[in-house]
Write a structure and sequence with these properties.
Elements: E1 12-19, H1 23-36, E2 41-44, H2 53-56, H3 89-102, E3 110-111, E4 114-122, E5 128-135, E6 138-149, H4 160-163, E7 174-177, E8 191-195, H5 199-209, H6 215-218, E9 228-232, E10 239-240, H7 243-246, H8 249-253, H9 257-271, H10 279-299, H11 305-308, E11 321-322, H12 326-329, E12 335-338, E13 342-346, E14 349-352, E15 357-359, E16 362-365, E17 379-381, H13 388-392, E18 425-427, H14 440-454, H15 456-459, H16 472-488, E19 507-508, E20 515-516, H17 525-533, H18 552-561, H19 567-575
Parallel strand pairs: 1-2, 1-6, 2-3, 4-17, 6-18, 7-16, 8-9, 8-16, 9-12, 10-11
Antiparallel strand pairs: 4-5, 5-6, 13-14, 14-15, 19-20
Helix pairs in contact: 1-3, 1-14, 14-17, 17-18
């Protein structure tokens, strides 16, 4: 990590700064201008263009797999998309560019090709963050009062399983990960070997064959004309019918756009009931498992049924896949599924454990991303020189008892946003912000709302307050509650009849067998929406002047939609005379 001892006077300054110009960074900048009339922000983006995930993931067929009404900002609907269309990666990136231009982030407020190396808190009386930025092989410094992280959840491609194979470097053709697609490679009349069968692979196969059922993908008119696709299948996912078959499209399209969005949110929130580890959840999952298996068996070629249809695992434990035409594409004679494990890479292709040689011209790794990793590559130093990595700890087995420890000893953040000991620092799409039933865009907007409500006292005219941070006790209790919910009260704690090692969401300590899930949010986004608007003043330092109202009606909504109430909350409400 690069160190710098340059004096602070050499640094530029903005009141707000954000690392990353994807949905998080663009959403923050737009919200500041729209709702707070603040334009004093600098966004640092390591790539040459904005878009984040949707700039990097440009593989054939890449598209959103939830209704577009849930994949736009609530304040910036896209009139070109119907509420249930599935926009492609280029269309989503174009949408982000239009939002950035509308809210004056382009040109001028986003610095591209700039990698933030280090963020260090400068204590009172300065009370600022100092960023060390690498851009075009030159180091510069920038300071801000409020620092936001928008580095995303899925950035580092998972490639270790392939490159650890014997002979991995000997292949004579092209090897590329789906998230780093090389469009200069001509696939015409080529034999493609595809590793993986999750969301990305299920979009790639029909797109390469020209058989996607996503109208947005088909309208691109791209014909790849591949000779053959050999797909290596080592895990199985529940592939559910496309949105067109699940959602009442004709009804939705007749409704006002705002109501369409609300209905899609409510339908998605209802899905979370099935993820609970209780009688109702298990009953719903059992029915859903039967329905999806029936759909898959009726759609997939019989010869591939055993390779594709999951067995011994309940619906919901792994990320579901909306069928973009993948199952029907397996009927194409140009596709072959191989269930044998690959044990060696050779110049002409790969060898399987059964001794078979599979020849090919191009290898595509649709193997997903490293998970449970946040702000990797950025050294964040908080109050007293504490580093964020040290605060989280390197061994999740230390997370048995979180109370009384200096850090949380596992990746986590209060309300997915804040970390104790790191003042004026907020994470967007932070730990445990992923929802499998609605949209991460909703989670990002909730995080921005919470952060802005928390810093209201500092922004108030005449305020002498300069910094705010979550209390260590509140952070530890929140993270402990989240892990307890995920491990003991939802399907992801093992109720899905799988080991943690088989779940995309869960990190497993191989020595102790301890689970740590820093990906999923174990609650309803409506609960997070409410709490973002009514932050608990006792959980935050230096919020003395903040007026906190907590009506009985909203309290019951919080209990119903949010995280379980802590004993501390109950005692405080009892002391205040609040009825239950």
């Amino acid at each position: 990590m690069m160190e710098s001892n340059d004096p602070p006077t050499t640094a530029t300054y903005t009141q707000f700064a954000c690392i990353g110009a994807g949905f998080s960074g663009i959403g923050l900048g737009a919200t500041l201008k729209l709702k707070h009339n603040i334009t004093d922000i600098r966004i640092f983006e390591r790539e040459a263009e904005l878009g984040g995930t949707w700039h990097l993931n440009q593989y054939p067929g890449a598209a959103c797999d939830i209704p577009s009404s849930l994949y736009t900002f609530s304040f910036a609907p896209c009139p070109q998309w119907t509420s249930t269309s599935l926009p492609t990666a280029p269309q989503i990136k174009s949408y982000l560019v239009s939002v950035a231009e509308k809210y004056s982030l382009l040109p001028g407020r986003i610095t591209f090709c700039s990698s933030v190396q280090k963020c260090e808190w400068l204590p009172s009386p300065i009370s600022r963050w100092r960023l060390t930025v690498l851009s075009h092989n030159a180091i510069s410094h920038h300071e801000c009062q409020f620092l936001f992280s928008g580095t995303g959840i899925l950035f580092h491609p998972k490639t270790s399983s392939f490159f650890s194979l014997p002979g991995a470097g000997s292949f004579s053709g092209t090897v590329m990960h789906s998230a780093r697609w090389d469009h200069s490679v001509d696939l015409g009349n080529k034999k493609v070997m595809l590793f993986g069968n999750g969301c990305s692979a299920s979009q790639i196969v029909p797109a390469l064959l020209g058989r996607s059922n996503n109208a947005e993908v088909c309208s691109s008119g791209r014909d790849y004309n591949v000779d053959k696709i050999t797909q290596f299948v080592h895990s199985r996912h529940y592939v559910i019918p496309s949105l067109a078959e699940l959602f009442p499209l004709a009804l939705l399209e007749r409704l006002p756009r705002g109501l369409q969005r609300l209905l899609c949110i409510l339908i998605g929130e209802m899905d979370f009931i099935a993820m609970r580890e209780n009688k109702v959840g298990r009953w719903i999952r059992r029915k859903k498992t039967e329905e999806v298996k029936r759909y898959m068996r009726e759609t997939v070629p019989e010869r591939y049924s055993d390779l594709v249809v999951p067995e011994g695992v309940e619906f919901g434990y792994k990320r579901r896949v909306y069928d973009p035409g993948y199952l029907r594409a397996l009927h194409d004679e140009r596709v072959e599924l191989v269930g044998e494990r690959v044990v060696e890479v050779v110049p002409e292709g790969v060898k399987t454990e059964g001794g078979r040689l599979v020849e090919g011209d191009v290898i595509v790794l649709a193997t997903g991303f490293e998970t449970n990793r946040f702000l990797e590559g950025v050294e964040v130093v908080g109050r007293g020189g504490e580093r964020l990595g040290g605060h989280w700890g390197e061994d999740v087995s230390d997370g048995d008892s979180l109370d009384g420890k200096e850090g949380v000893k596992g990746v986590g953040a209060y309300e997915t946003v804040a970390v104790g000991g790191f003042p004026n620092f907020f994470m967007l799409a932070g730990p445990n912000s992923v929802t499998g039933h609605t949209s991460v865009i909703i989670a990002i907007e909730n995080a921005i709302t919470l952060a802005m409500n928390v810093i209201k006292p500092i922004l108030s005219k005449g305020s002498k307050v300069r910094e705010v941070e979550v209390t260590p006790e509140a952070e530890r209790q929140w993270v402990s509650n989240v892990q307890d919910e995920l491990n003991n009260k939802t399907i992801w704690g093992g109720g899905g009849n799988m080991t943690a090692a088989e779940s995309w969401y869960v990190k497993l300590d191989e020595k102790t067998g301890k689970r740590w899930n820093a990906m999923l949010y174990p609650g309803y986004q409506l609960g997070a929406w409410y709490r973002a608007r009514k932050p608990r003043k006792e959980d935050w330092g230096t919020m003395d002047k903040y007026q906190h109202l907590h009506s009985n009606f909203l309290f019951y909504i919080n209990i119903y939609f949010g995280m379980p109430c802590r004993e501390k909350d109950t005692l405080q409400l009892r002391k205040a005379g609040q009825p239950f």
